[in-house]
């Protein structure tokens, strides 16, 4: 599976070049896990060119969110077309992984999460 | 039926339940299935994907008034998803039979899937409890494609859904309770039905499915399912390389407390000429009056019948050996379903591949299938006296789908 990676505001933006289907969902999973294991904990997924995501892919994104949350990080999504958005809504995953309208909104949300986390960690 | 159409639901295809009305549960489905439990009728149609899939379904009695229906899809197309599907189906059935509520069944199943240390497994599923006494549906949805209710005048989507199974240990599952009317039909499906693509980047999609059900809601359930799978086949057949990788399953439940039965069947054999149009309309009008259907409903069917027949006759002019249109009206107090067929004598063709047009033009017989697009079924029978007859059937279409 092809994707590009861009660093911005302390986060990495992963832009998928294609849909997530049965053939490439394992590749997607491995690549994402590798990035998380490499220490990236603030991830923005650009799905604007992913016109379709299989249910296994939806579940994988939720699992990656769970995995990265354990290290205090987060994943934000943006660029979903209406069909993909509906798949996230029906599966309930848009309730646990935040779907943003734009890249800027996703980055701002990550930044806010980081601030909230650091506030919680500051000793009183 | 081709091998690829022989599906194995949840890897379990051990018994033939065709025409089963004994109250046994559906443990597996071949390509199509019918079962009746407590006057609730279940029609299912299934097509296997190119790889092992994870679709599963089940229906069984809980007590004298309640029937449980399950449909689900374990993510993936490999052996693991088949095993997950089996596990989900058996667990849900066991728990419901023990009296556990649907929402609690999902909570337990989700916890079990989250505690699997070896591998991540995900699934979506719906449990519906149909109470025929109170005419209520109790629905719990774990991230599955939302069911549709086909009403006599519209199709509506049931909106509530919770998180799919295997995604979060914090997932909560609720239950939605709705009243149904005796004429309602419940449509449940797996997402292979809408995610199938035509090889040109377009997928069948929810919108197309909703439109198709809405425009064909007048059809009886068997014909409706046939039409749906035929449309999907048409959608993909223009690309010979296109093959569904995921399973497709559809389940229609007639919620009527009375059996959906044909009250009367009227058969007409009409010459394939323009003057037959008037006869066809009169037959529909007569049936509408006889069964006291609303005038607007009868008029819609009548107009659609005339429109299809006119088009058919126009097409048939290119085939000199197609003589008759056979019109079958299946009438009940609820609706009239019209089935149109034509009969051709293939033995009277001038050669093996072409037929003589009325004005002398040769048209290949194979063109007929393209010309008379969206044919629902085809039957070829041999008759030593009259030659080989080919019968092409088309159910009434109340609209077209783009």
Describe this structure in words.
In chain A, helix 3 links the parallel strand 4 and strand 5. In chain A, helix 1 packs parallel to helix 2. Chain A is 46% helix and 20% strand. Chain A is globular and about 45 Å long. Chain A has a 5-stranded mixed sheet with strand order 1-2-3-4-5, with helices on both faces. Chain A is of the alpha/beta class and 124 residues long. Chain A has 4 helices and 5 strands; from the N terminus they run E-E-H-E-H-E-H-E-H. Chain B is globular and about 70 Å long. In chain B, a hairpin with a 4-residue loop joins strand 7 and strand 8 (155-157). Chain B has 8 helices and 18 strands. The longest helix of chain B is centred in the last third of the chain and has 22 residues, at 295-316. Chain B is 26% helix and 28% strand. In chain B, the strands form 4 sheets. Chain B has a 6-stranded antiparallel sheet with strand order 1-2-11-10-7-8, covered by helices on one side. Chain B has a 5-stranded antiparallel sheet with strand order 3-4-5-6-9, covered by helices on one side. In chain B, helix 1 packs antiparallel against helix 2 and helix 6 (276-290) runs antiparallel to helix 7. The relative contact order of chain B is 0.10. With 402 residues, chain B is an alpha+beta fold. The interface between A and B is medium-sized, with 23 and 30 residues.
SSE blueprint:
The complex is a heterodimer of chains A (124) and B (402).
Chain A lengths: L2 E6 L2 E6 L8 H13 L4 E5 L8 H15 L4 E5 L3 H10 L6 E3 L2 H19 L3
Parallel strand pairs in A: 2-3, 3-4, 4-5
Antiparallel strand pairs in A: 1-2
Helix pairs in contact in A: 1-2
Chain B lengths: L31 E6 L2 E8 L7 E7 L4 E9 L4 H19 L4 H13 L8 E9 L4 E7 L5 E3 L4 E3 L18 E4 L5 E5 L2 H4 L9 H11 L5 H17 L10 E7 L9 E8 L4 H15 L4 H22 L5 E10 L4 E10 L8 E3 L5 E3 L2 H5 L5 E5 L7 E7 L7
Antiparallel strand pairs in B: 1-2, 2-11, 3-4, 4-5, 5-6, 6-9, 7-8, 7-10, 10-11, 12-13, 13-14, 14-18, 15-16, 17-18
Helix pairs in contact in B: 1-2, 6-7
